[in-house]
Amino acid sequence: xxxxRPKYMQIIDAAxxxxxxxxxxxxxxxxxxxxxxxxxxTIYLYFKNKEDILISLFKEKMGQFIExxxxxxxxxxxxxxxxxxxxxxxxxxxxxxxxxxxxxxxELRQSNIKLRLKINDILKGYLNMLxxxxxxxxxxxxxxxxxxxxxxxQMIFGTIDETVTTWVMNDQKYDLPDLSDKVLExxxxxxxxx
Amino acid sequence: xxxxRPKYMQIIDAAxxxxxxxxxxxxxxxxxxxxxxxxxxTIYLYFKNKEDILISLFKEKMGQFIExxxxxxxxxxxxxxxxxxxxxxxxxxxxxxxxxxxxxxxELRQSNIKLRLKINDILKGYLNMLxxxxxxxxxxxxxxxxxxxxxxxQMIFGTIDETVTTWVMNDQKYDLPDLSDKVLExxxxxxxxx
Amino acid sequence: xxxxRPKYMQIIDAAxxxxxxxxxxxxxxxxxxxxxxxxxxTIYLYFKNKEDILISLFKEKMGQFIExxxxxxxxxxxxxxxxxxxxxxxxxxxxxxxxxxxxxxxELRQSNIKLRLKINDILKGYLNMLxxxxxxxxxxxxxxxxxxxxxxxQMIFGTIDETVTTWVMNDQKYDLPDLSDKVLExxxxxxxxx
Amino acid sequence: xxxxRPKYMQIIDAAxxxxxxxxxxxxxxxxxxxxxxxxxxTIYLYFKNKEDILISLFKEKMGQFIExxxxxxxxxxxxxxxxxxxxxxxxxxxxxxxxxxxxxxxELRQSNIKLRLKINDILKGYLNMLxxxxxxxxxxxxxxxxxxxxxxxQMIFGTIDETVTTWVMNDQKYDLPDLSDKVLExxxxxxxxx
DNA sequence: AATGAATGAGGCTTCATTCAT
DNA sequence: AATGAATGAAGCCTCATTCAT
Lengths: 194, 194, 194, 194
Description:
Chain A is mainly α. Chain A has helices at about 5-20, 30-35, 40-45, 50-75, 80-95, 100-105, 115-140, 150-170, 180-190.
């Protein structure tokens, strides 16, 4: 589909760039069209409306990322290895694409609730994957057997998300993937001595 | 001051209610004024502009909360007790005020970057408090001595924040303060067996 | 009246100063009240509304000036002497009071048509005086006997007014009363050789 | 350009009409758009903001007039003939377009100082032309050789302007171009006998 | 499939005026 | 006579979307 309709991805990539550079509220459709090298009206041949651009953007960028990761996770055996992979990949994806990181961590969150609920739907796959890893780890005896999976998943996702956001807000001064091991260790062992 | 200028808090409370019920982008100044029972122009006797209402809202509600908590934290002795208090209080404040929770977790995040940076400034006090608790716990031997304080703080804040947001997005179906102990335990001991 | 109600002139003088320094559209009633050292509401004990301040301002400042000049003109004998006096006095009044000059030449003209018609009413006395001087000069043989009094008056007033306005717009760099003789000569003899 | 962008002149002409009929402060953008038969937003495809409409209005109407007159003046030989042409044309332009006369003499003067300074810039061409005519007349011996050019120009412009304004304020009861000869004679010979 | 000129709804803020004290 | 907190009407401009070409 993308090859047959090359302008589709062209517009999405333009949107990421424009939003990252101008901010969500300064990213008018006309600006995205200009950056994509198409007319304003052309946008509406590929997307229903502006919101659809943003949802599609998230779906394309994160959806593909999640699918790919689900594949790779299968190749790991222990739950800890799987969790390590998720963290590493998450940090690597955004650590290598500053524009995408700015858009997902800061700009896209300025959208209205309706859009954010749709974004959450896309994230469901990610969260389900975390749940699976957690459930497997409990079964295998790696994790506590009385672990509250939902809370644990919120801790994992909340920690990853907050770590990326802080990194973005600090102007990406340090290397994000470098933090993977320490974050994994924190999530697995907590902060206490021993 | 608030007693001498009753309309100040009156407007802020109205803003919380209006934003929680109508959403950030559907909360016109005129709507807030009507809810507060004052004329539109009266708003501008107490606030510089619309953005100032939102910053003041966050400052009053969260700022006071943070100050109060800093006092209470001093009365606890161990770092774990202090962390337990913070989590409990945080969940209790927002768990008891659904409107405020909606506003802080969902609506206020739709504001522009400039406003969010000002909100972050107010949150600094909270984050500093967490850092202090972490540093003390390291000194006292409660926490790992090689703990990365910044990452640990991001885990704690990210977990608390994500837990509240999930609770809000699930229409507050369950009791938030009830989760305090489990969340504390997760943060302290991690997810692994033993 | 002015001595019994000292705040009346106090407010008018404040208005001149505020308008000269801030411009017509930046001269809010509250600013004038503050400059006059009275409360906003007090203004309305002395003036019907904001427009009334401006009309009164012009009436007091120009009205008195016109009356005084009408007296002084009587003491002169020839029409040319009378015209010379008018020009000299006009230039001197405004040349010595830069604030008043700014207000009458620039700021007050930004008022709406209704106000300007009222200002024109006050100027009637001035224009009538010019008409009288012109009529007398024709009778005495000083001026052309086929002189169109209305046109001649428009030339005289237009020239004086334009001269003052240009002086104000040039930041009052040169001395205005110094120009009196040359302006008189131009009006009397025109620009042609001989 | 005007033929290729017909809406540009359409909007300017609408602005003249609306301002002449409703007054400067009652001429909302929406009213001008309605009169021009376009949507409000269309205004902003052709003008930066409301002020820009007014500046453009003056530039188009007076600017073109000045340019045309500069051409025609060249065809006259004596300074007096040139001055006669200027007066005649000025009176004819505004005498034939009552709406434009109302706008330039009354309404546009209510604009703020910033706008009026821009209008003055456009008038510079006109004033320079007067200066040139005066300088040439001095050289040719038509005018006094000790003539103060600046003052003479202020007399000429002030007289023309005041004559038009009086005509407008008197509801254009008499014929303006008819006054040209008498005004010329006054400016050239002054008011005195012989 | 592509264009881009045209549309028109919608809200923050100012400030002259009032009136209870 | 004096205060000053409160009122509330009113308009410029942006930008997502459409549609004739």
